[in-house]
Amino acid sequence: MKAVVKNFNYDHVDRNLQKFIDKYRKKSGKQPTWIKIDVVTSIESLPYEKLKNDLIQTRRNYVQYGFSLHENWKLAFLPEEINANAFIRPTNKENLFILSEKNITHYIRRYKDLFMVYLHKDYENKQVYKFYTESYLIEGNEVIKLESEGYRKGLRFIEDLSSEIDSMIETSTEFLKNQIQDSGQYIYGYFPHFDKEIDFYNNLRHSSSTYALIEGLTYLNKDVSIIRKPIDYLIKNYLYEVDDFAHIYDDTNGVNEIKLGQNATFILAICEYLKYAPDDQSYLAAAQKVAKGILQMIDKDAHTVHILNYPDLTVKEKFKIVYYDGEAALALLRLYQLDHNEQWLNTVKMLFETFIQEQYWKYHDHWLGYCTNELV
Q: By residue range, what is the domain housing residue 148?
């Protein structure tokens, strides 16, 4: 559910805010959980064309200022409104963005209750207003001042992060757990712009999310048995077995491919789960088969192939992203810690010779950081 945004001037703001809250409560039947107040601290008048150009030159979804199209602030938008409603969207041309008339019109009509069409031509050669704010969040009986500048804009001031970490782990773990459907597939996500569920999927993210969920549940001393659902989902639907080896494949939108990183994160998720359910030999067997699949993607010179075509196993892309190599090495090492198969350990040693020779240290790969620590 999107936030309801209302403009107030400084006169009688407390009274007007209370009226707005009462109206919201009567209409929705519930008290608002959060109230965020954005106080305008600076305003700059500029030509519309300059504002439009500044917006599309800013990294998408990273706009940190609001704008008003009228001096009376009838059409004013906070940066959160701009970012969360796809005011700026990409075109079919690479690295070319536009200020979307369609998306802004949709937002104005649906959430501002104004029956109008937003058109660039209506503001050409006119002055508009760019503004910055200082923000406060009301949560329960607490008023929380938010950061107002830089990459921390909109975040709470935290003096002692350690006091917040457990709460963050608990809420994010609970959220992730609740995204598991009966099939074992996660609800992948939502586009905030139009309140639509994302209709594509990614089995690499599925496995890495499962790994993270295991870590969260165990840190909180909670039952990990729900993890069987997402693991079973992959084994039932996406484990492609060929002779004595296997791969995890992806057929989303017809891509039909096998990624090295996809295989690796599957093994990592299973190995993490088996720490807490060591008797499940069927899962271990699946991880071992996929590990053999990873070996099929490494040549005699310890160079990896990153993406294969499914189902014929021909090479689709020799290289995709450097992090796949570190993921694969760590996955084999974690599996070795469980079954003590020297083949996995020797393969990791061989990979590391190549990593050293080709100066992989310069990529600052966290996967290799983990792997180096455990290998030593």
A: 13-152
